[in-house]
Amino acid sequence: MVRVRIAPSPTGIPHIGNTRTALFNFLFAKHNKGKFVLRIEDTDQKRIVKGAKEAIVEILEWLGMDVDEMHIQSERLDEYKKYAKVLVESDLAFEEEGAIWMKMPKGKIFSWQDKIGNKKISFKSDVLEDFVILKSDGFPTYHLANVVDDHLMNISHIIRGDEWISSTPKHILLYESFGWKLPLFAHLPVILGPDKTKLSKRHGAKSVLDYRSEGYLKEALINFMALLGWGPSANKELMDISEMISLFDLSDVNSASPIFDIKKLDWMNGEYIRRTQNSKLKTQIWEYLGKKYPIQIIEKTIPLARDRIKKLSDYLPLCEFFFKEPNKYEIDLSQKKDMLRHVLNTLKGLRNWKGVVLGEKMQKLASSLKIRNSEFFMMLRVAITGKKISPPLNESMEILGKEKVLERIKNAMPL
User: Fold this and answer.
1) Which of 83, 106, 304, 374 keeps 20 to 30 A from 140, CA to CA?
2) Residue 270 and residue 20: Cα distance in Å, rounded?
3) Sheet containing 35-40: order of strands
4) CA-closest candidate to residue 16, choices 68, 62, 59
5) Is beta strand 93-96 parallel, antiparallel or unpaired with respect to 99-102?
6) Where do runs of H (alpha helix) occur along 90-167?
């Protein structure tokens, strides 16, 4: 059976690149009807960051990447001590200065066929040194804990970042020293920023939780992360999680480093917003805004806003005037008192308060006042919304209602 694991260390909240690695493990496990294991590697006790473990779990849960098992390494110390002792007793390791060291043999070649790019990778043992496997505080190093746990948890494929390639010979040595079968290795290429350097905070190497707080949808984030290095043979770009699971194959993962492009994520998020049903998008925006705004008004405004926003966070700057009176105006209306008075008088007598009717009436008024439509409607838009850019004005006026529109025009008229 296929069994894969992700093994984050709670020394910080994982950024989007680490979560991409978790996603590839998840897709591979589900495609092969296998198991997806979470193992918290908390053996470096001094560097643990408070709340990091909880954030790791929250990221997976929010994205819908359900784990089949969860293990905590600090709860398994007896296992590592037991196996370290076996190596010492077999004269494959030695104790010095309170720590246990693994002996690196000479004249040996460590090699494996990596599943990414199907390439053979080899290291000569002569260029490698002895390494610590158990520290003086009784905690194992990454190398020992990693190998012992992967064996005992029956991990069949190790899918991880290619920064671990140089550690793989040490792991192979440990497997062979115990007489254990090697898992298959797949080392994912590092994600690069637009300037072709390693992805960092200035490029967007933030946590998925940060992206969530900025208004990105989980569906878009999953889709975007999946395409960071994976090109499905179906050559599709927009896919839901079930499609990704059905298509995912390690042979389709590119061995070249993918480029992180925030513009593509923005585009993709906008596409997902436009594909989301109004009823669902209404709830997503309402919850994103902390449930502070009337959900009924959000529902009415979604058809006007959805094509104009790329993130949930774009909604309020565009539509805040539906909930709050404008307290400033982006255009000086001091010379538009007469125009606004004519608008006010025309709208007062209007009984049919529908967007189409409002538009027709205002066009006729602009014509009779000999004001260009573009100028007339810009001034009216600013008087009602405070802004030069807003959702369609006629429909916005309909949603605001007659009483509120008249009140805002009055408030916008210079004294």
Assistant:
1) 106
2) 20
3) 3-6, 35-40, 69-72
4) 59
5) antiparallel
6) 142-152
State residue 8 phi and psi, 5-degree precision.
-70, 150
Mean pLDDT of 318-334: 94
Rg, C-alpha atoms of the chain:
30
Is the per-residue pLDDT at 367 higher than 80? yes
Cα distances from 50 to residues 45, 63, 75, 287, 409, in angstroms, run 11, 22, 18, 27, 53
What is the share, in percent, of the chain residues with pLDDT greater than 90? 93
How many other β-carbons are positioned within 10 Å of the β-carbon of residue 236? 13
Mean pLDDT of the chain: 95
Q: In the predicted model, what is the mean pLDDT of residues 49-65?
A: 97
**Residue 153 identity:** M
CA distances from 65 to 222, 272, 323 (A): 10, 19, 36
Residue 320 CB partners (closer than 8 Å, separation 6+): none
The pLDDT assigned to 205 comes to 80
Instruction: Identify which has the larger pLDDT, 201 or 289.
Output: 289
Report yes or no on whether pTM surpasses 0.90: yes
User: What is the pLDDT at residue 346?
Assistant: 96
Q: Helices 393-400 and 402-412 meet at what angle, rounded to 10? A: 110
Nearest to 242 by CA among 17, 26, 4: 26
Is the C-alpha dihedral spanning 260, 30, 167, 143 positive or negative?
positive
Question: Which of 169-183, 226-240, 303-317, 378-392 bottoms out in mean pLDDT, i.e. has the lowest?
Answer: 226-240
In whole angstroms, give the CA distance from residue 175 to residue 147: 7
Helix (H, G, I), strand (E, B) or coil at 230: strand
Place of tokens 């008004």: 297
Find, among 52, 12, 14, the residue nearest to 205 by Cα: 14
* C-alpha to C-alpha distance for 411 and 400, rounded to whole angstroms: 15
Segment 81-120, tens digit of pLDDT = 999 999 999 999 999 989 999 999 999 999 999 999 999 9
Mean pLDDT of 151-160: 98
